[in-house]
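@channel anyone free to eyeball this complex?
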Amino acid sequence: MSLTPADDSIRLVPASQFTIEQLTALYNKTRVDYMVPMPMNVARLADYIRLYDIDLDHSFVAMQGEEMLGVAMLGVRHQRAWITRLGVVPTTRRHGAGKMLVKSLIDAADSLSSHLIMLEVIKNNAPAHQLFLKLGFRETGELLVLRRPPRTSPPDPMVADAQRLDRTDSLVLVGHDRGMQPWTNQSESLTNAQEVSGIRLTLADGSRGWLVYQRQKFLLTRFAFKTERGDPVTVARALLSHLHSQYPRLDTQIENIQMGDPHLPAFYDMGYMESFRRVEMWRLASDG
Amino acid sequence: MAKVLVLVIEDMPDNAELARKVLTARGYEVILAYDAESGLKTAIEQHPDIILLDLGLPDYDGQTLAGWLRDESSLTNVPIVAVTAWPPETARQMVESYGCNGCISKPIDVAIFADQIAAFLKPSPAS
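replying in thread with the prediction:
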């Protein structure tokens, strides 16, 4: 393929005009040279689209002729939007496809009256980071992706009045006030997920809090948590000790925990390790 | 003597075929799996002598799969070697904590790849 900078033969087509198989294959091709490639199969991408309210009519594939060059997707919730799965096939980068894709998503979000567009970019992915800055996004924080291997010396559950919560009660606790959380951790993401449950506990000194999570076949993930009273580290340590003593054989992966989260030391105490970091970026409609 | 059986779990067909080609030339028997679910099934059914594990798989990631493999009593002593493009220190910490025996950087160096694998294999009783 011969592309020139800002090649005007590139056109954008709504992602809804492609099959999920085509989108999966394209997405994986765009990530082959990433340090953290995060490939997906068809089922996983379909689940991603459903969980994160991806609007394929307002998501785009960059094409030249019949060749698919890149993809970018837009999540839409109320008057917020989220840019995700942006990627351009390595051999066709630096010819404007990525910029065209992001600009088209910004336009789509504006057409949907979104007040805020959110995204995350893997830390040290300088080309993408620079592109987002040029298009009006501002850094709002740094996010951690954490893991805890299974059978990491499971802690004895801390003495507490602990209550297991079913899906309904868990989702009530998560509530609807998480719109400023990273997209993956907003209440809608948990509402859209299967196998959601939770723990709520009160410690002897009156400290109390809750943790809501998704349990997959081999994995605990999608945590939402809150300290309602007391020291966040103590409450989180108690919640995690109960969770991991309940599921000692399950791997755990949680993403987009904010660097300044006051619960964070408890995660490290409980055997979590940092996998990688992302930079969170926002673009307000008034910035446009 | 039976050939050493190597299970390569890698979602990129080109990478998998390259590993197969290099290891077959060394005299190993190589079987391939392209995702975590089929990798686990193949490992349990075929009981390989060593497992090479890509950390980026399309259904569950390699760390999660390493956890399942280590949970299988029949595979307890089978070396698991992660193959990854992660920075070396991050990769080392991650694979050790998930019960892998070590890691090899991607892209593989075909000149030394077979020797790297051989180093993870226990000497056979006859040797």
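from a first look: Chain A has a mean pLDDT of 93.
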